Amino acid sequence: MGGPLIPGGYIMISRNIVESEIWDKPPLYIKVWLYLLTRAQHSDYRKLKRGQLVTSIPEIIEACSWKVGFRTERPSKSQIFQVLDWLRKLDEAGDESNTSATMITTTKATHGMLVNIENYDFYQTSKNYESNNDSNNEKDTKATREQRQPDNINKNVNNAKNKENKEMPIQQAEHFDSWWNLYGKKEGRAKCEKKFEQLVKKYSYEIIEQGTKGYLDHRERLRVTGEFVPAQKNPLTFLNGEHFNDEYESKPHSIEPVTSQVSKPFFYDITQGED
Questions:
Q1: Residues 6+ apart with CB under 8 A from 80
Q2: pLDDT tens-digit map of 124-136
Q3: Three-class SS string for 197-220?
Q4: What share of the chain is helix, strand, coil (3-state, %, to 5)?
Q5: Which of 156, 172, 260, 274 shows its CA 20 to 30 Å from the CA of 132?
Q6: Alpha carbon distances (Å) from 123 to 51, 86, 133
């Protein structure tokens, strides 16, 4: 190859990531995960060991922001905390029987936090992967795959999914009840609940909740400032249109004090004009 080298180095991503739990999470999860991987040390450097990095919540928020037209959207602090908490949990991303099932561990540092990518050395070592030629050779690898996958990948993934599936109906019901009470306007509960179940697979509950609060706060600001307040959307219309993603004014309008000009009372002098 005669072209220039790509600066910044590289990381290795297993093809099996599409079978892992993080692939089923909202897009922010994998974006944070890839950011941590690309920032981690490839080799020991000063006080950092291979697979470690020092970062902070504000830094992750800025790095994982995205553009909507000319507008920059940023994840909230609570959303980043939620992702990191998930990455720290056991059995969330273990996809090999000989590796730890925890994706990261974190420790407070002087300027932020120290993140340790668990199993970094295992997944960032090329000899631990099948070659593309080997994986494409069905005759040579079919028996190995059939024996290996149930033990090392599918077993852990299926166990994690079964555990999550038992918890999800309860969690979703609690989240929906909270949202239903927050929204206030109660029409078509059954259809709303079905739509809500679809949305929480695409967005986190925190995103839906914060966006709904933004919509309701915006309506309240209009009412307080005496402006026209449109009728509140039907809850199913709100969910179908994903209006929790809409932008609403974050600050109330400034209200100029109104000083009424009261004229002095008029008194008619009955003595005027008399001798």
A1: 32, 57, 60, 61, 64
A2: 898 888 876 655 5
A3: HHHCCCCCHHHHHHHHHHHHHHHH
A4: 50, 10, 40
A5: 156
A6: 10, 20, 19
Comparing 1-15, 148-162, 225-239, the range with the smallest average pLDDT is: 148-162
> Taken in order 83, 84, 85, 88, is the CA torsion positive or negative?
positive
User: If you average pLDDT over every residue of the chain, what do you get?
Assistant: 78
Closest CA to 218 of 199, 246, 242, 176: 246
Tell me: the pLDDT tens digits for 219-265? 999 989 889 989 999 999 999 999 999 887 655 444 444 444 444 44
Identify the CA nearest to 242 among candidates 201, 184, 203.
203
The CA distance from 239 to 272, in Å, is 74
Contact 33, 87 (CB under 8 A): yes
> How does 168-182 read in b/e, with b if 16+ C-beta sit within 10 Å?
eeeebeebbeebbee
Residue 233, pLDDT score = 92
Written as one letter, the residue type at 213 is: K
What secondary structure does DSSP assign to 204-261, as a single string?
Answer: -HHHHHHHHHHHHHHHHHHHHTT---PPPPPHHHHHHTTGGGS---SSPPP-PPP---
Helices then strands, counting H and E runs in the chain, come out as 10, 5
CA–CA separation, 226 and 97 (whole Å)? 63
Token pair for 164 = 């999550």
pTM for this structure? 0.48
